[in-house]
Design a protein that fits this description.
GO terms for molecular function: phosphatidylinositol bisphosphate binding. With 339 residues, the protein is α/β, with parallel strands linked by helices. 47% of the residues lie in helices and 7% in strands. The protein folds into two domains: 73 residues, Orthogonal Bundle (Helicase, Ruva Protein, domain 3); 178 residues, 3-Layer(aba) Sandwich (Phosphatidylinositol Transfer Protein Sec14p). The chain is globular.
Length: 339
């Protein structure tokens, strides 16, 4: 593959740019995309196989030069996730990578001790799972069911941890990096008391991660069985959504035929009018829990070094937290009105 010559790794952060100090050996990247997906990546993501490793090296050099204390993994496969998520725009991919680490640094309630075994109760509740079959566009469907959460059992941040680990597992696949994912959120039975846990501060944090802090392409968000209270929830969420993402929200209510226009019945469980049998969460839970060692290895490389300064990363979330607390007081009446 042309571009192999670009894999010679130098360390821009050590000495002058002319220094040729070799970095430690990294796993050699081997493309696992099918010919059709290679074509799709070229057309939709501006990914050129002949330039792929050159592009990865360019991003690696930018990280070492501009953020030497970021403490990130610099393997080809890892950096490719960020390039694909930003259509091989170096600057935007670098910003996404920095945001990825900033999110982890500024929300310890979510990112401390983040591993599958730590969120086993959430997985067993069925709050989040992944349907066994991809849709016709090759996208995994992430199914979220808030009614499965009992707030007295654990805080909402545990649910967010489970969703995050699910996305981390999915994005390991190059197929998912190219095709993206679809979200199916079932809001059946969501009450006012439960919705009140999802205030503007949490909403802003979660949406910030999904839009600007995680290398995944969310192609559609299908909301099913939403009660009137969802108008209040969406009122909290919408100000933080970019127009492109907002346009990918589809509210189906109880209309399964409307849902089937976006997700075919052949891959849906019986609970959503599909023909794929009962919704089974065990297969995904077993897969995620079996990946414990992978996460321990991957995340061990993602711990920010103690000498990193605010200049190295994006602004801290302290100001945002105060702003969102103020917003929460204004949003609560909307929740009560919609309920």
């Amino acid at each position: 593959m042309s571009g192999d010559s670009d894999c010679t790794r130098t360390s821009p952060s050590a000495g002058s740019p002319s220094d040729n100090e070799l970095l430690p050996d990294r796993p050699k990247y081997v493309c696992t995309l099918s010919p059709d997906l290679v074509t799709k990546a070229r057309e939709e993501l501006q990914e050129k196989p002949e330039w792929r490793l050159r592009d990865v090296q360019a991003l690696r050099d930018m990280v070492c030069k501009d953020y030497p204390s970021l403490g990130t993994c610099l393997d080809d496969a890892f950096l490719l996730r960020f390039l694909r998520a930003r259509k091989f725009d170096y600057d935007r991919a670098l910003q996404l990578l920095v945001n990825y680490h900033t999110c982890r640094r500024t929300w310890p309630e979510v990112f401390s001790n983040l591993k599958p075994s730590a969120i086993k109760p959430v997985l067993e509740s069925g709050f989040v799972t992944v349907l066994p079959h991809r849709d016709p566009q090759g996208r995994h469907v992430v199914c979220i069911r808030p009614d499965r959460w009992t707030p007295s059992n654990y805080p909402i941040t545990e649910n967010i941890r489970a969703i995050y680990l699910t996305l981390e597992k999915l994005i390991q696949s190059e197929e998912t990096q190219v095709n993206g994912i679809v979200i199916l959120a079932d809001y059946k039975g969501v009450s006012l008391s439960k919705a009140s846990h999802f205030g503007p501060f949490v909403a802003k944090k979660v949406i910030g991660i999904l839009q600007d802090g995680f290398p995944i392409r969310i192609k559609a968000v299908n909301i099913i069985n939403e009660p009137r209270i969802f108008k209040g929830i969406f009122a909290i969420i919408k100000p933080f959504l970019k127009e492109k993402i907002a346009n990918r929200f589809f509210l189906h209510g109880c209309d399964l035929n409307s849902l089937h226009q976006n997700i075919p019945p052949v891959i849906l469980p019986e609970e959503y009018g599909g023909t794929a049998g009962k919704l089974d969460i065990s297969a995904w839970n077993e897969l995620l829990l079996a990946s414990e060692e992978d996460f321990l290895h991957d995340f061990s490389e993602l711990v920010l070094q103690c000498d990193s300064s605010p200049h190295d990363l994006l602004v801290s979330g302290d100001a945002d937290e105060k702003q969102c607390d103020d917003s929460l007081r204004g949003m609560k009446p909307q929740l009560y009105y919609c309920y």
